Amino acid sequence: MSYPSLEESIGRVKNNSHYILLLALLLGDPEIREKKTWNVLAKSFFTNYREMILLYCGYDIGPANLERIRVMEPKLFIEYMSGMFRNGMFEESSYEELAEFINLVFDTGYEQSSICNLLKVAHEDYQHIHDGIRMEIKREPARREGI
């Protein structure tokens, strides 16, 4: 089945939200996605119906439905995020929640579970960096007044 014919079929059905959600379950199945032609169909479907599916499932998609930000050095980025997390930059959250939000906003190339594991095992050296930056920020007003 081609995507245009699928879209045409969906368009002919009144109150098609149930069908869209059922198609999301079908086309999101990993076994289905392994097949090249089905995967192409699934990508087109999810590109077109993503926002609708998220809204039907109760997700707040925010003010804009934007593509994730690609990260050039994912491991380093996750190390930085872990350092900020360990230094209390993120209020009331867990590694799991942070991994979920990183995965939502940033394209690191890692699955959410891998991001979570990388956050947990990150180097402790970032405490020194954090403390150094914090001291620089405290000195900054004094430096500006002296300039």
In short:
The protein is mostly helical and 147 residues long. The protein contains 8 helices and 2 strands; from the N terminus they run ααααβααβαα.
Write the layout of secondary structure elements.
Blueprint: H1 3-12, H2 17-28, H3 30-33, H4 36-56, E1 69-70, H5 74-86, H6 95-105, E2 106-107, H7 112-120, H8 126-146
Parallel strand pairs: 1-2
Helix pairs in contact: 2-4, 5-7, 6-7
Helix fraction bin: 55-70%
Would you count the extended β strands for me?
2
Name the strands of the widest sheet in spatial order: 1-2
Give the low-confidence spans.
none
The total domain count is 2
- Count of individual helical segments: 8
Molecular structure report:
This protein is mainly alpha-helical. It folds into 2 domains: 3-56, no CATH class; 69-146. The chain has 8 helices and 2 strands. It has helices at 3-12, 17-28, 30-33, 36-56, 74-86, 95-105, 112-120, 126-146; strands spanning 69-70, 106-107. The protein has a two-stranded parallel ribbon with strand order 1-2. α2 packs across α4, α5 packs across α7 and α6 (95-105) packs across α7. The longest helix is centred in the first third of the chain and has 21 residues, at 36-56.
